[in-house]
Amino acid sequence: MPRVSIIAEDDSIVIDRIAKMADCTKLREAKISAVQWYGDHGEIEFERHHKSNETFHSLEEFQVLVDGAKPIPSPRPPTPQELDEMQNRFMLEYPDARKAWEERDAEVRRLHEEAMKRDPKWQEMQRMMRSANENEPPK
User: How far apart are CA 36 and CA 44, in angstroms?
Assistant: First the structure.
């Protein structure tokens, strides 16, 4: 027998660690907040614990929910406009959010320039560019 957890409030049902959805309206109407099935017995939990948990020994009463459970649909991906709005809200809330990346980029540029200055081909190219610029007529 599978392990089953039914959470009425959000219409969710977990069957052997796989989350699914089921219409739990009837459970909510009966003031049931959750049902736990352990394979050979189970417990019914009531809203706000207005009643003690009840033990039961057959999943038959809740089998229709288990059998009718459907996979949770994938969330709709945000539109480009929604992504822009999320980014803008985030940047307003955390104005220094880009600071770490800007510092990293500055360090990468510094290291690149330092490495290039040690390269004889780069040095020769710089000399040629300075020479060409000196020979250009003023604009």
Answer: 7
